[in-house]
Design a protein that fits this description.
One of its GO terms (molecular function) is protein-disulfide reductase activity. By secondary structure, the protein is an alpha+beta fold. It is built from 19 helices and 19 strands. The strands form six sheets. Strands 1-2-9-5 form a four-stranded antiparallel β-sheet, with no helix packed on it. Strands 4-10-12-13 form a four-stranded antiparallel β-sheet, with no helix packed on it.
Length: about 675
């Protein structure tokens, strides 16, 4: 049990490795296609044939061997599979590949066998007498350059020996006239989009996640696994060195290596870049993934309560400790820092898990995670460097004691509350109706009451020391918790006070309620959930359209609705002047069978459109070259763009000005 959560924590990243973009610098997500495959057949005699598969790669790209690389983080090996049976044909030996020596790979930092420019694979087969098999060969592979890898793909060849015909692709997936018609219907031919190139606005997000990571690191410092290490480690370096200057340098290096280690932990997330523009949304709203995070956070919470310890295998830390002892100099200090990271995992792991869940389920992907890890590592490293420079500060540190466990248990309650956010995401996307807004807030109130009871000494946990007088700080945090619970209580009512603006984005939306709100749109607005119906209404009422690309699990969407749209002036313009069309790109409800189809991608390939979210996510990407939410577009009822689309805009006056500009342009166009 104690290893379960840590294993899950490190397994999830590899589910999410594809949550990034391939960016060619234009601002658009582009399909990278650096490899092409060809197939041919050589006839040896009436029953023996050789299937030949040739991979052609662009300069700088690598295709990996079929042999598994013997390293922890390895590239995806190329794999061949065939539909051979006793009745049709049998394989003679294994699929052969070019015989080359391993080459040093910069991405994986190891000697790996890979192919460049061209690679030819051969497979001999023996065809059964009087049989005419339809041979299907599938190649599973991934390619990388010196900076990144692309997601694994499958190339398929259908080979007819009798007709000497080879066709590539999944030809058994039929494309009907219905598919073609519904594919064409997705493109609404927006006029004016060419004026507005997509812009990258990630700088502020990176700074925010860095600061959040830094705060998380500061919190980790106050846990029983880390705090006692500060004076011990600083004293070791300053007193154990030959001179004070050497001790200072070693302590600063120790802190630097702690920082570097946490940054390095995020590097595996950069190995693959996604070529699917909707993958980030799919990850953040994936039901299975959110439930896994819910379970992990529950496990973390009870670990913080003291019922068990989540640790990495002790052999890891022992091995690192031995390395630190046996190797001197910079390398030894590095292994000391790595040992700290391993032995403190029971306290830092849950905080890092929160950082992981918060960053990889948002638009920043792996780069955002790296920034968060950098902030976390910096906060952990600073005390070791600063206290080495100013050792007298050690006297001002409070002594280790029961207050450290109080911090840990408090974090456990916070983890417990956050767990239900992930369950809520799954509930919203699947429309289960389990965690309506009031039920969600009720759970948070219970968690808050539990924290209050603990802080005021009414309940205790396994690692609590002897009962003592409640300190002023503990009492103060208890009072703040009580005030927070009081703030939540109006959220249980069916009144205007239920709009808890400070928490916008965390609870389910206001209209996802146990009360009858009369509408399923934010703030009681009338919203169409279908583009065609909304467009028809706009033409009937001769009003402009505000197209709202949103999501059930989109935090910033809720913030916009509850903090910006609730502004009386903004609300009046939305309610009276525009037709609101809200399209939920993460809605996992299946489309009626008649509306499901295979989408023909502009650059080739097929994507099944089976759910409401599939349809609107593709609709957004196809027409507006954007896949973030919230995303707002103002159109007239002839589908002409009125002004530049915007995303998350927390400034009420700025958003109101944007709405009024669109309205003015619509009125001017109508006069003409």
């Amino acid at each position: 049990m104690k290893y379960l959560a840590s294993l899950l924590l490190f397994f999830i990243p590899f589910i999410q490795l594809q949550a990034q973009y391939f960016d060619d610098g234009s601002g658009d997500s582009q399909m990278a296609d650096p490899i092409s495959w060809e197939a041919s057949v050589e006839k040896e005699n009436d029953s023996i044939f050789t299937l030949i598969f040739t991979a052609n790669l662009e300069d700088g790209w690598h295709l990996y061997s079929q042999k598994e690389a013997d390293i922890d983080i390895a590239p995806i090996a190329t794999t061949f599979s065939y539909n051979n049976t006793e009745e049709n044909f049998e394989l003679i030996g294994e699929t052969t590949e070019p015989d080359i020596e391993p080459i040093y790979d910069k991405v994986f930092e190891a000697d790996i066998t890979y192919f460049e420019h061209e690679a030819v694979f051969r497979q001999q087969i023996k065809v059964q007498p009087e049989s005419d098999p339809e041979i299907i060969a599938e190649i599973y592979f991934s390619v990388c350059d010196d900076e990144k890898c692309l997601p694994p793909e499958t190339e398929r060849f259908n080979i007819s020996l009798e007709d000497n015909e080879i066709t590539a692709g999944f030809t058994d997936l039929e494309i009907s006239e219905k598919d073609k018609e519904l594919t064409e219907a997705l493109n609404i031919n927006v006029s004016g989009m060419e004026k507005f190139a997509p812009e990258e606005e990630e700088g502020n997000n990176f700074l925010n996640i860095f600061l959040l990571g830094f705060i998380g690191g500061l919190i980790a410092l106050l846990t029983p696994c880390v705090f006692p290490m500060i004076p011990l480690t600083v004293s070791f370096f300053t007193k154990g060195a030959k001179n004070r200057q050497k001790g200072l340098v070693n302590a600063i290096l120790y802190g630097f290596f702690i920082f570097i280690i946490y940054v390095l932990l995020s590097l595996p997330f950069h190995l693959l870049d996604s070529v699917n523009p909707e993958i980030l949304n799919n990850i953040s709203t994936n039901v299975t993934l959110n439930i896994i995070f819910f379970i992990i956070f529950i496990i973390f919470a009870f670990s913080f309560f003291g019922y068990y310890e989540i640790t990495l295998p002790s052999s890891w830390s022992n091995k690192m400790d031995d390395k630190a002892s046996s190797v001197g100099g910079f390398v030894g200090i590095f292994f000391m820092a790595l040992t700290l990271a391993l032995v403190s995992f029971s306290c830092t792991g849950p905080i890092l898990g929160s950082l992981l869940g918060g960053s990889l389920t948002s638009d920043g992907g792996a780069m955002q995670l790296s920034m968060g890890m950098a902030g976390f590592g910096l906060a952990l490293a600073l005390p070791f460097a600063l206290f080495a420079l100013f050792p007298n500060w050690l006297n001002s540190l409070p002594k280790s004691g029961g207050w450290l466990n109080t911090v840990k248990v408090t974090l456990g309650f916070i983890e417990l509350g956050l767990a239900f956010k992930f369950l809520s995401n799954a509930d919203l996307v699947e429309h289960w109706g389990l965690l309506k807004r009031e039920i969600f807030l009720g759970i948070w109130i219970l968690v808050g009451l539990g924290l209050m009871a603990y802080l005021f000494g009414f309940i205790r946990f396994p690692h609590d020391g002897p009962k003592k007088k409640i300190s002023k700080v503990r009492f103060g945090v208890g009072v703040l918790t009580f005030l927070f619970v009081l703030y939540l209580i109006p959220g249980l009512t069916n009144t205007s006070a239920a709009n808890l603006k400070l928490l916008s984005g965390f609870p389910p939306p206001l209209f996802y309620s146990i009360y009858d709100k009369g509408t399923e749109a934010p703030l009681g607005l009338e919203a169409y959930k279908d583009w065609d119906k909304g467009l028809e209404a706009a033409r009937e009422q001769n009003k402009p359209i505000i197209l709202d690309f949103t999501g059930w699990a989109c935090v910033n969407c809720r913030k916009m609705e509850e903090q910006v749209w609730s502004n009386p002036e903004v609300f009046d313009v939305l309610n009276e002047e525009y037709i609101l069309i809200s399209l939920y790109v993460d809605d996992r409800k299946e489309l009626p069978e008649a509306a499901q189809f295979n989408y023909l991608k502009p650059k080739g390939g097929i994507k099944p459109i089976e759910t409401i979210g599939d349809k609107w996510a593709t609709f957004q990407t196809l027409n507006f070259k954007n896949n973030s939410q919230p995303f707002y577009v103002l159109l007239d009822n002839d589908v002409n763009l009125l002004n530049e689309p915007v995303g998350y805009t927390p400034n009420e006056s700025e958003y109101l000005t944007w709405l009024q500009e669109g309205l003015t342009k619509f009125q001017e166009t109508a006069v003409k």
